[in-house]
Amino acid sequence: MENIPAILKLDAGGMPVSWIPWQTAVVLYARDRVRWEAGAQRFLIRGGVNARSGRRSTLEIGSIIAVADRSRRHRRGVPLLTNRTLFQRDRHLCLYCGHQYPAAQLTRDHVVPASRGGHNGWENCVTACRDCNQRKDDRTPEEARMKLLAVPYTPNLAEYLILSNRRILADQMEFLLAHAPKHARCL
C-alpha cells in the first residue's frame, strides 16, 4: 500500500481542492464524507482482521474523490509559492536569458526587488539562473536593461496542484487539465 499515490480531493461541486494521502481518504470514506468519485484508477486497501469472523476488512478507494466539506485551502486560493513550484511554472527556464537549467542552478528573482518594496508573490517572482540574477542585482529589469521573456502570473488551483505533485496519475492529470486555463504556460 506504500505505492499508492496522493488522492485528488475535490469539493462537492467538483472543483479541485488538494492532494491528500490515501490514509486520509480512507478516513473520509469511513466517515461517509465522500460524495462521489471520478477517474478510472481504484486502490484496494486491506485493513485488520475481525476477531469474531476472522475476515480481513477491505476498502476500495478512488484516485479522485469529492468530499462534502468546505476546505479552507480551497476558499483561500493558491497557496504561497515555493521555489519548486515557481521553477515548475517557468519550466526551469531563466526568464532573462531563456536557457533551461536544473533546479540547483536556479534562483527566485523578484521583478521589483524586495528591498524596494517588491512582494514575494507569484506575480512578482520569476525563475532566473544565478548569473542573470546577479547581473540584475537590486534593480528592475528595465533598470538592468534585461528583458523579461514572460510575464509572471498566479496559477489557478488546478495548475498549482499539477505543479506541486511529481506523481500524478493519468486520470488525475486529465481531470486537472480540464480545470486549467488553455493558455497555461506550466503545462
How would you portray this structure in words?
The protein is of the alpha+beta class and 187 residues long. The protein has two domains: 7-77 and 164-179, no CATH class; 83-136, DNA Binding (I), subunit A (Orthogonal Bundle), CATH 1.10.30.50. It contains six helices and six strands; from the N terminus they run ββαββααββααα. The chain has helices spanning 22-30, 72-76, 83-89, 130-136, 157-164, 170-179; strands at residues 7-11, 16-20, 34-49, 56-67, 106-110, 125-129. The strands form two sheets. Strands 2-1-4-3 form a four-stranded mixed β-sheet, sandwiched between helices. A hairpin with a 4-residue loop joins strand 1 and strand 2. Helix 5 runs antiparallel to helix 6. The protein starts with 6 loop residues before the first strand and ends in an 8-residue tail after the last helix.
Which strand order do you get reading across the main beta sheet?
2-1-4-3
* Poorly predicted regions: none
How do the helices and strands follow one another from N- to C-terminus?
EEHEEHHEEHHH
Shape: elongated
How many helical stretches?
6
> How big a fraction of the residues is strand?
25-35%
Q: How many strands appear in the DSSP assignment?
A: 6
Overall structural domain count:
2
Helix content: 10-25%
Largest sheet: 4 strands, mixed
Which whole number gives the mean pLDDT?
91
Structural class, by secondary structure, is alpha+beta
End-to-end Cα distance:
29 Å
Evaluate the radius of gyration.
21 Å
